[in-house]
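Incident log, structure service

09:12 report received: a user says their structure output differs between two submissions of the same chain.
09:20 pulled the input from the user's history:
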Amino acid sequence: MAEAVFTARGLTKVYRSGEVEVHALRGADIDLYSGEVSVMLGPSGSGKSTLLNILGGLDRPTAGTVRFRDHELTNASERELTRYRREHVGFVFQFYNLIPSLTARENVSLVTEIATAPMKPEEALTLVGLGHRLDHFPSQLSGGEQQRVAIARAIAKRPDVLLCDEPTGALDSKIGVLVLEALDQVNQTLGTTTAIITHNASIQGMAHRVFNFGDGRITSTHVNETRVKPSEISW
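09:34 re-ran on a clean worker, output below:
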């Protein structure tokens, strides 16, 4: 049986503004396993991003526990969380956050220069199908290419997990498929545990497991016995 990379129990997150309370998570339990691709599916405000941020060490739960392998994250110090993010987690967001004045190679190099045992930027970019665009600036790249540079930047430090928040949300279906193919290639080549947040139900076919969210809860989970390739997804 695959190793549990994340084990979370009873995760609750309450945001307060004056006397108003917003319950973003309401007691979520989840396990994510080594080498799997999981899709977290649900509408905006259902708790997906909040859970992803807690797993990635960007936020803390109001209640509950979360472990990364044998490390307790719930009560970790800020320094410990910073080290955890630097050494173990790659993030891909809806917006690419590339530095306009740097080439694709140079944007990826920003991560490899501080990582312990990184890939070469050229290797990471080739893995996502951009080996021929190394010295192009973001303004010379399409939206899909910029997102693939962001993926290369995230994986260049060889993270244990890749957390993706709406990675195709700003892209049309044709370009979105190319981004999903890059994520699938990373998973197959490196065995990176990958979690993808989306409101697009079509994407769930590429996952090993799918978690459905609603009102701050995981409402259901199912296993895909037969996964489809991103190119076979019907948007």
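09:41 both user submissions now match this output. Likely a transient worker issue. Closing.
09:42 reviewer note: The chain has six helices and ten strands. The domain at 4-232 is CATH 3.40.50.300 (Rossmann fold).
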